[in-house]
Amino acid sequence: MSKASSPSAAARPLVIGGVAPPNAVLLAPMSGVTDLAFRRLAARLGAGLVVSEMVASRELATADDEARLRAEGVGLETHIVQLAGRDPAWMAEAARVAVGAGAAVVDINMGCPAKKVVGGHGGSALLKELDLAVRLIEATVEAVEAPVTVKMRLGWDERSIVAPELAARAEGVGARMVTVHGRTRAQFYEGRADWDAIAAVKARVSIPVIANGDLVSPGAATAMLAASGADGVMVGRGAQGKAWFPGAVARFLATGVAPAEPSIEAQRALAHEHYDGLLGLYGRDVGVRHARKHLGWYLDAAAATAGRPVLADAKGAAMTAPTAETALAAFDRALSELEWRAAA
């Protein structure tokens, strides 16, 4: 365990409208990553809130099967659906569908940098159209009783830092929380997230502000909160292959002590649980394909715990096996080989 430090201000309760999670550490929405199986696992392991993959508003409103699956929240105590789009009417209808299906909070994506999303003038493209962005928020707020939140980046590029203005306008039309990734769209995921820049957003609003970007160790959460002045933190890529990580951050912020990493055997059990959940969610044939990247991330996390690299051939075998049985067997062999080399 790491050296103890004083508990953070983030141990104070976070309240989003009428929703009061057990802690202020959130699992970020990540397309293709935060499926229901992963969210259930992260929530069980201590994440305060977990957010669905980004769901296209029109597709959800028109009962598209894939959109409905992305928005599924069965088994979660508090379910948050993140919507994307640029049409206020579709956004409002999708919010009604999500809340009708059990969502306790609706989040609006104004930060995704992906070319496919931006090319359709959604996600972070809305940072260039603040009037439309505000209309989207307002329409969503008016459509549902559930709290509406917004996730954004600092701006389109370094010459157009609009997050403070957008956050203030979002609060003005009823948003109950904003999350800010400390990069511009132009940066994608390059460079370092600017936690200090998030402080300008916090200074403009009275609703909770959540800081996001580059949180990869429990101890870093203290610096993130100090720099941003935020009310909580959101974990994204730092949780890939480490469903326990948001919970570890929450425990560090509450106690000042970073928990030890789970043993490799404990990580194996969590990976199996996630794998079984994926097969149940998507079916065996499709589930195998969805699981491949997760198996790779679990192996990377185990390698970090062991202090040894995973052999490329072993990792490749786990990520390319054609069936559920052969993929899991290859994964187990790779983990066992890693344990053997770590103990040698």
TrEMBL record:
FMN binds at residues 82, 151, 181, 236-237. SUPFAM superfamilies: FMN-linked oxidoreductases. Its EC number is 1.3.1.-. Residues 26-320 form the DUS-like FMN-binding domain. It comes from the Bacteria. Keywords: Flavoprotein, FMN, NADP, Nucleotide-binding, Oxidoreductase, RNA-binding, tRNA processing, tRNA-binding. Gene3D superfamilies: Aldolase class I, Putative flavin oxidoreducatase, domain 2. The active site is at residue 112. InterPro entries: Aldolase_TIM, DUS-like_FMN-bd, DUS_fam, DusB-like, tRNA-dHydroUridine_Synthase_C, tRNA_hU_synthase_CS. It catalyses: a 5,6-dihydrouridine in tRNA + NAD(+) = a uridine in tRNA + NADH + H(+); a 5,6-dihydrouridine in tRNA + NADP(+) = a uridine in tRNA + NADPH + H(+). Its cofactor is FMN. Pfam families: Dus. The keyword Hydrolase does not apply. The keyword Membrane does not apply. GO terms for molecular function: flavin adenine dinucleotide binding; tRNA binding; tRNA dihydrouridine synthase activity. PANTHER family: TRNA-DIHYDROURIDINE(47) SYNTHASE [NAD(P)(+)]-LIKE. Belongs to the dus family. Catalyzes the synthesis of 5,6-dihydrouridine (D), a modified base found in the D-loop of most tRNAs, via the reduction of the C5-C6 double bond in target uridines. This is tRNA-dihydrouridine synthase. It comes from Hansschlegelia zhihuaiae. The lineage of its organism: Bacteria, Pseudomonadati, Pseudomonadota, Alphaproteobacteria, Hyphomicrobiales. The gene is dusB.
